[in-house]
Specification:
With 74 residues, this protein is an alpha+beta fold. It has a single domain, classed as Orthogonal Bundle (Arc Repressor Mutant, subunit A), CATH 1.10.10. The protein is built from three helices and three strands. A three-stranded antiparallel beta sheet has the order 1-3-2. Strand 2 (59-62) and strand 3 (69-72) form a beta hairpin. The radius of gyration is 11 Å and the shape is globular. The model has no long low-confidence stretch (mean pLDDT 93). This is Fic family protein. InterPro entries: WH-like_DNA-bd_sf, WH_DNA-bd_sf.
């Protein structure tokens, strides 16, 4: 699961990404609410992690704000 991680990804972001990636192997997408429960950090922290994972090209964001979901980047 840790292959192909980009340079500059932090340990915290790697941990979050690996948990999310494992979840997404069995689900099409993940919401922030589910990610918060999965990662066990605060919602603002998880949103920040999700945003970074999108900017690093690991996840794709779908929808806007309240209805946003995340999926593995293709």
């Amino acid at each position: 699961l840790e292959e192909d991680l980009p340079d500059g990804i932090t340990g915290t972001e790697t941990h979050a990404y690996l948990l999310i990636k494992k979840y997404l192997l069995n689900h099409d997408s993940i919401t922030t609410t589910v990610a918060v429960k999965l990662i066990g950090k605060s919602a603002p922290t998880v949103r920040k992690n999700l945003g970074r994972l999108v900017s690093l090209g690991l996840l794709e964001a779908n929808g806007s704000n309240k209805n946003r979901t995340y999926s593995l980047a293709k």
